[in-house]
């Protein structure tokens, strides 16, 4: 399945008074990973917005194993884990010097704006194929 790796350094403004990364930043980074995946798949967010379509977030979770601090070098691996009929699940793993320090996932639903209304609909085949890549798994139903 499609994967994207983002490497970055923790900035001072991303930490709290205790000197560790403030937790909402993990969700920001997961969001950045997903947008990068979509761009890699050939469907950048700007293009989807221009077409009144996209993958808004419907569920997210992050587990924190070890704290991160200012200056830490991070490797974020974002990967499409599952493509369902109307949604996809993207996993995110955060590494510092090869050690897993946090992991999470997002579930995003495919929507399209129709006549002023937003509606969920099946993911178009072209996007589905791009997300799955080789060896992908398709689920026929959304839970």
TrEMBL record:
The keyword Hydrolase applies. Keywords: Hydrolase. Pfam families: 4HBT_2. It comes from the Bacteria. The keyword Ribosomal protein does not apply. Belongs to the 4-hydroxybenzoyl-CoA thioesterase family. This is Uncharacterized protein.
């Amino acid at each position: 399945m499609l994967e994207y790796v983002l490497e970055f350094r923790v900035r001072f403004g991303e930490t709290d008074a205790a000197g560790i990364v403030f937790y909402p930043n993990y969700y920001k980074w997961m969001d950045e990973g997903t947008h990068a995946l979509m761009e890699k798949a050939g469907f950048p967010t700007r293009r989807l917005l221009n077409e009144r379509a996209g993958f808004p977030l419907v569920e997210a979770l992050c587990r924190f194993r070890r704290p991160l601090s200012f200056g830490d070098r991070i490797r974020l691996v974002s990967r499409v884990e599952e493509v369902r009929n109307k949604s996809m699940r993207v996993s995110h793993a955060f590494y510092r010097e090869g050690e897993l320090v946090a992991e999470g996932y997002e579930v995003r639903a495919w929507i399209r704006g129709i006549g002023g209304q937003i509606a969920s609909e099946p993911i178009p085949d072209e996007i589905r194929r791009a997300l799955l890549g080789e060896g992908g798994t398709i689920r026929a139903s959304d839970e």
